[in-house]
Design goal:
By secondary structure, the chain is α/β, with parallel strands linked by helices. 35% of the residues lie in helices and 13% in strands. The chain has helices at 9-21, 38-50, 61-71, 89-96, 114-117, 140-150, 201-210, 238-248, 251-269, 298-310, 331-334, 359-365, 379-392, and strands at 54-58, 79-82, 100-103, 125-128, 153-157, 165-166, 169-170, 177-181, 194-198, 276-277, 290-294, 316-317, 368-372. α2 packs parallel to α8, α3 (61-71) packs parallel to α4 and α3 (61-71) crosses α7. The protein is globular, with a radius of gyration of 21 Å. The chain binds pyridoxal-5'-phosphate (PLP). Pyridoxal-5'-phosphate is lined by residues 60-62, 86-87, 89-90, 131, 157, 159-160, 181, 183, 194.
Length: 393
């Protein structure tokens, strides 16, 4: 996830355009901004790239999730099926919407297992929110089919898989809405930022207004614009959007480098008897931000993760022990620990997350290690790295 690796003159130029006008706000100031519409331009280029009708840029990936849930009408008491392997933001966004995260097992794609979704559906289920983890994809065609059959909303969290595709179609464009993040460790970054994409005109209008206090964005006097409903402030600034725009134009370069580097690593490790690779439903669409693989069991995986760190192989993640990406370590969720009373507490069927059992996800995650793929590696860096990894294994 290396946007930060290639920050350069292109980003500086876009930011300078904004600084030269002093207009840091994405709306209005038509004269003063001298034709600079960084957020708008980013949205147009991103929608084109994803082959969807609309994109709305916002302040973070977490904001994108909140906007998507609100726009899709997911609210108080609705259940949303999510995987237990994701960044905490996914379940936080669902809870803060007043909705209830319901966890279903992942499979060896490291993403939501479509077969586990069906049994998790209840009369309260409103949406399914798969997360395309670590640069690659869920079996999104099967999940989409299921949602259509059951009349459920599909929202994709593609924050970690920007630029990845399934059978040529961009991740994030399968459901009613897709969410991206451009935070500092994502494929492209603008410091802090996010986006939603959608093909649905009405959902877009709702999202666009919700992210800006309900503004309908009609006319050229902000004070006289109508409020469609109560909203929030999830706006991005022109400075952040400017950086993002330059980064977006580097996406193909980033993907090409990552894929080439991943290929070399994968070939070098392919004969290691102890490891098997993560299942990728469409190898050609992998954004290749990570190489993820399985060890035979938990104790061996823990040991290898430690040994890799000791050998100086940086950027390796053992998610099973990580506090932020797997439900096992989310005691704050299990205690529903929030500064103020969460909506879920008002329900007579308030969920008990201590009792959630996900043996299949535990079995998979306890054996998984992911390695970050960098854009800036040289041939020497790569062979050094391979030597170290082989010695550990
Ligand atoms: C990064 C991330 C988010 C949140 O994005 P931010 O821009 O950091 O708010 C949400 N979901 C997943 C899977 C992520 O990796």
């Amino acid at each position: 996830m290396p946007g930060f690796e290639i920050f350069g003159d292109e980003e500086r130029k876009e930011v300078q355009d904004v600084l030269d006008t002093g207009v840091l706000f994405r709306y209005g100031f038509d004269q003063a901004r001298k034709g600079n519409w960084k957020a708008k331009t980013f949205e147009t280029e991103l929608a084109e790239r994803m082959d969807v009708r609309h994109c709305h840029l916002c302040s973070s990936g977490t904001a994108a999730l909140s906007i998507a849930l609100a726009a899709c009408g997911v609210g108080a008491g609705d259940e949303v099926i999510i995987p237990p392997f994701t960044f905490v933001a996914t379940m936080e966004a669902v809870l803060h919407a007043g909705a209830i995260p319901v966890f279903a097992e992942i499979d060896e794609t490291l993403c939501l297992n479509p077969e586990a979704v069906d049994p998790a559906i209840t009369s309260r289920t409103k949406a399914v929110l798969p997360v395309h983890m670590c640069g690659s994809m869920a079996r999104i065609d099967e999940i989409k089919d299921l949602c259509e059959r059951k009349g459920l909303i599909l929202i994709e969290d593609a924050c970690q898989s920007f630029g990845a595709t399934f059978k040529g179609k961009g991740l994030g464009s399968f459901g009613q809405m897709g969410c991206f993040s451009f935070d500092p460790v994502k494929t492209i970054t603008c410091g802090e930022g996010g986006a939603i994409i959608t093909d649905n005109d009405q959902l877009y209008r709702t999202a666009d207004a919700y992210a800006d206090h309900g503004h309908d964005h009609i006319g050229n006097d902000r004070g006289l614009e109508d409020h469609l409903f109560l909203g929030n402030n999830y706006r991005i600034s022109e400075l952040n959007a400017a950086v993002g725009l330059a980064q977006l134009r580097k996406l193909d370069f980033i993907l090409e480098k990552q894929r080439a580097h991943k290929q070399v690593l994968k070939e070098a490790l392919g004969n290691t008897p102890e490891i098997t690779f993560r299942e990728i439903p469409d190898e050609n669409g992998d954004s290749a931000t990570f190489l993820s693989f399985f060890l035979p069991n938990k104790s061996r995986a823990r040991q290898v993760a430690k040994d890799l760190a000791r050998a100086g192989v940086d950027g390796c993640f053992y998610w099973f022990d990580n506090k932020w990406h797997y439900i096992r370590q989310w005691d704050h969720l299990k205690e529903l620990k929030t500064p103020a009373r969460p909506f879920a507490r008002l329900l007579d069927h308030c969920p008990d997350y201590w009792s959630v059992k996900l043996p299949e996800s535990d079995r998979i995650m306890s054996r998984t290690i992911s390695m970050l793929i960098k854009v800036s590696w040289t041939h020497e860096d790569l062979s050094e790295r391979i030597k170290k990894i082989i010695s550990v294994l």
